[in-house]
Please model this.
Amino acid sequence: GDSVTQMEGPVTLSEEAFLTINCTYTATGYPSLFWYVQYPGEGLQLLLKATKADDKGSNKGFEATYRKETTSFHLEKGSVQVSDSAVYFCALSDRTVGTDKLIFGTGTRLQVFP
Amino acid sequence: NAGVMQNPRHLVRRRGQEARLRCSPMKGHSHVYWYRQLPEEGLKFMVYLQKENIIDESGMPKERFSAEFPKEGPSILRIQQVVRGDSAAYFCASSPRGDSNQPQHFGDGTRLSIL
Model:
């Protein structure tokens, strides 16, 4: 079945450092890909998405490109801030094999220190 | 902020009791999804409902768990005869239609603790 694999955390960075969180997926059909962010005690917020190969999603300085050839959707940010500290989830939705349920990775905790 | 509203935020039950979790979707959204997050894990899909219909319950445990989304009122996730392993955060998400181009909007979750 479909699945998402994320790099394990925590990822610990200093403010203004470059961030990469790796995400790869396995899907039968043609999934849409998402990054969600979860702050402590809160629900998930959509960070960005891409619906087809070569699409680039971007928001708040974060970017991710849908790479079909490598089945990847890595999250990047050029300069992180302390306020970016949170747990980041990569997810896919593959309607071609069923409903629009989201399949999540296990999450990557990011800790940014001043 | 008329986002997805879940209540209660925290729920404590003793083993064998029933737990009812409520979710009011965003205004204009008629599709509701429930997910469960065990400690230090990602979210796992449980069930997908439209008004008065269960569309996909492939992630629901076969026993003790049920869900509904009536014509009027919130969606309810019901857990009967709770056990320690049911302790988790339960999140509800809604979308205007069942379309992966319409992202799901999440509530803040209900954290269920079983004594």
Observations:
- The mean pLDDT of chain B is 92.
- The CA atoms of residues 38 and 88 of chain B lie 5 Å apart.
- The radius of gyration of chain B is 13 Å.
